[in-house]
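User: I'm new to structure prediction. If I give you an amino acid sequence, what do you actually give back? Let's try with this one:
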Amino acid sequence: MKIVIAGAGDIGSYLILKLLNEDHEITLIDKNQDSINKVVNKYDVASVLGDCALPSNLAEANVGEADLYIGSTDSEDVNILSCIFAKKLGAKKVISRIKSREFRDEKGAFIDLEDLGIDEKVSPDLLAAKEIERTLVTHGAVDMFEFYKGLYSLIGVSIKAGDFFDGRRVSDIQNLVAGKEFSLVAILRHGKALMPSKDLKYHSYDHAYFIAKKEGIEKIRSLSISDSRKVKNIMILGGSKVGAYLLEDISKKYNIRLIDRDMANCERLAENFQDVLVIHGDSRESGFLEDQDIKHMDALVAVTGDPEINIIACLTAKRLGVSKTMALVKDTDYSDVTFNIGVDTLVNKKTIAASFISKHIKKGGVLSLINIPSSDIEIVEFRVGQDSKIINSKIEDLKKLQKSNAIIAGIVRGEEAIGVSQDLELALDDKIIIAVNSESKKALDELLS
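Assistant: Good question. You get back a string of structure tokens that encode the predicted 3D arrangement of the chain. For your 449 residues, that looks like this:
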């Protein structure tokens, strides 16, 4: 696929890293030579120096031949304008990164960007807020994502010393599961992502990710040592865009205290969210969180613009007895250390946005795509279409896919989650949930093309 990406910032450069592993032909546009150099010195991509809002620069990047154009600069106006031009010049699909609520809220939006030729909008701040909201309700888990009306879910748990998983082989656990209630799809261990094998053993401090039926979720919780208290009282650290978007969705569902260092921001948030106790203060001050009665909170959500402040606040909260902690970060380098010392969930805007965009790059009826944090493992949900290569095939016939370490973890037929067996024949409109790594992504793409 020919892809043109505008913007060599965090999101643009991460997208390039992610997409190059899938053998796409990529061209980068940016008006800053230093920013371009940082990318092209690492990755084998073509580049154009110039303003992507100018049609001449888009033409120089051959955007008219592009299968996909992504406007991912820090300027919302530039992204929207460049997407309009790119579509007019012939790009098959265009995606714009946006920030304003006005453009992302379909009900009552002032302008429908689809009328201007923009196929998809992506708001990293909004996606991060949705990720946090989703995680808040997953008591006893560090992460959870529902597939097709909740018939299957991706659930992540921390393996604790002494729980049922600790020290047992994957195959031993699976043999105890009646009716294929859940399947292991990934383990994060010491900064490495592991695809399961029958002889792989669970270790304490692993982060294990499962695809589970509804009944399997409770089974996983019962086998692991976890704090299953429901979240009622939340402290949010930082009134950033992520924090504000989060309040829009949860301010009436929980008892919330929000803390921010900026007085003007506090006044604005207090006016807009009257159900929320907004406090002006600095969490970096010694004893500040203790003074704000953090020990009586069920969750701390740290979303300031400084990842180190977020992580330190989470560690402090964990030490004081808070059961669920979440930190907004910019890089994946924190994952291994923070998971092992007390931060339950890391939220990364660029990885979330990249996963959102990636589902538009996949072929063959991809419905959703979730990236396992700090890994190359993706959970892909796709529909078997009329022209699919695998329609009427049995699972055992997908030898190339299974040899590449892909894991077919769930199948929805009609309104029912059905068990995965080697002799199962795939039918039209089946929804398949599959875990793939960098090796098996190519095999999956061949089936979906």
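You can read the tokens as a compact description of the fold. Here is one thing that stands out. The chain has 16 helices and 22 strands.
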